[in-house]
Amino acid sequence: MIATSVLISTITTLPAVAADKPGIEAFFNNSEIKQPTLSPDGKTLAMLVPAKQTGYLQLIVLNLDNMSSKVLTGFSNADVASYSWVNNRRIVYSGGFHDVAEGDLRFYPGLFAINIDGTERVQLASPDPAERSTTDTHIISHTLTGPTWLISTDKSYQTDNVYVGQSVFNNLDDIKAIRLLKVNTKTGRATTYERVGNTMTWLIDSTGTPRISTTLEKGIKTVYYLDPVNSKWRKLAEFPRLDSKGFEPLAIAPDGNLYVISNAGADTEAVYKYDLSKNALDNAPVVTLKGYDFSGSLIMDDVKNKLVGVHYLTDGQSTAWLDPDINAIQKKIDGIFPSTINQLSFSRQYTDPFIVITSFSDRQPTVYYLYNQRTEKIFNIGETHSAIKPQEMSGQDFIHYQAKDGLSIPAYLTLPKGSSKKNLPMIVLVHGGPYTRGAEWEWDPEVQFLASRGYAVLQPEFRGSTGFGSRHFTAGFKQWGLAMQEDIADGARWAIAQGYADPKRICIAGASYGGYATLMGLAKNPELFKCGFEWIGVTDLNLLFELSWLSDMSEESQKYSMPVLVGDPVKDAKQLKETSPINIADQIKQPLLMAYGGSDRRVPIKHGESFRDAVTKTNKQVEWIQYVDEGHGWHLVKNRVDFWSRVEKFLEKNLAPQ
Fold first, then answer.
1. What pLDDT band is residue 77 in, cutting at 50, 70 and 90?
2. Which residue ranges form the domains of the chain, and what is each CATH number?
3. What predicted TM-score, i.e. pTM, was given to this entire model?
4. Separation of alpha carbons 108 and 94, rounded Å
């Protein structure tokens, strides 16, 4: 319930929403607004919204003194893909395409800058891929070439400088390092910083100095520190990339303190302060989350030179404010919007009147508000998916179930709104990666679309998934098709035992690794899974090591990470063969829908074509879809709508709600 002391207004006029159930487009359209961000002085709000004539995202600025808005810049044939404030009067931005498939891309994003009054527009980096920069010379006075992207702005917001990264390629066209440059956004003049080896990540401190450099070479990660005493790089630590005893630099505080993420001998990762004089972690963590690895960011006050808060992820996103005044504001906003996660974004001064609120939940797609601390008015800036009615969406619960060997498996369960919540047709939706976090408590278009059609959805965080501790992660090493697959099957068994799932109407589905798990699940557990749909799925584990000439997987990853995570192509050859779907395709008799992108470099289409040819010899219930110019996922709205339309028909035929 909204407090009576707060007034809510609307800046933009939103389109009317139809009274009936949302169509497929409502779930899979592009976002209607992106990235509303306050200027450092809090007097201007910028955001990305589609142009009425072209649909391309354009950059809009709103003067908060008089609430007047204007289109600042845009492209006639591309989106403004992202932007950042350089200072109070200047913005840096890049281009992109929401209506061009990956295989049709002919340009880099490029990099541009402009004043908020529309003057002094400068092209900083060329979008032309024919121009590739390979030099490490100290001074560059012309437009930058090659893949160039923003790493950071100058946190003083008193200059026209930004910090950008550029890819450095080896002779296999792999990215072997990231070059760091400081670029003046008015003159285009760029200075290249010294690299220590094959630097892959940089941390820049509040003075604009690159302070931390992390290299990766032959599976070894090395962290260097630019010592202010002598302005020379010194090694802080060196460890194997997959060693849980290592650490990941997180942030440099305005006071110069280094914060890192580490297990430090525990099961879960926490935030520690790193003692730069002793080259060691402090004994006690700064931030620890019971049962979860730390994932998030530290919120710094660059004006007062202190840490004021922490964004973090457990089952969902949350923020802990260390500043009591900001914490009081958070509590007030949460009281106004009690059913949503409400993330606050401030200008540089936390006492400035305006705050951007990012509000979302499992049922509600993101809505952006502008809150005035002084007048207590709240303005609705816009919604990412305005055709979605939260009251028609389904609730998502975070649960745990036990695997056969006793390991506790986290999962998300979504039951269709208005259903009996018992004996339902269910989709076991397997995330990609697989060594990543699969889901969190938020509105998910795929999950909510399936639930809106009457299907329960189970999303298991099987072993190997990140975010739940080292034991959970490492238990997935070399377990493709084995214990990882059993975790997924155990999830289906749990749902049956709880009465949620009809044992005769369970379908398995997923993309990338989830596509692999779909095929393995159909082959290994036909008693559980009556059908499956997968897209861009891995079908032959050996191709992960053999297709470097087609794949975007680096030689570094193939040599030093994949043998540990998936298996050694020589030592584990028998296991890789037995756990490759291509070799057991004849065991799949259930209805199957497969979809692949013709320009996918992560999972090249050979995976799909070879498996299709094998499975159709013994299974006539296979539907094949190819989006010729798509890559690893569906970039175009028309293809997302087409794919999920086909999924809807496939499920109606093979798993229809009774």
1. confident
2. 394-655 (3.40.50.1820)
3. 0.92
4. 9
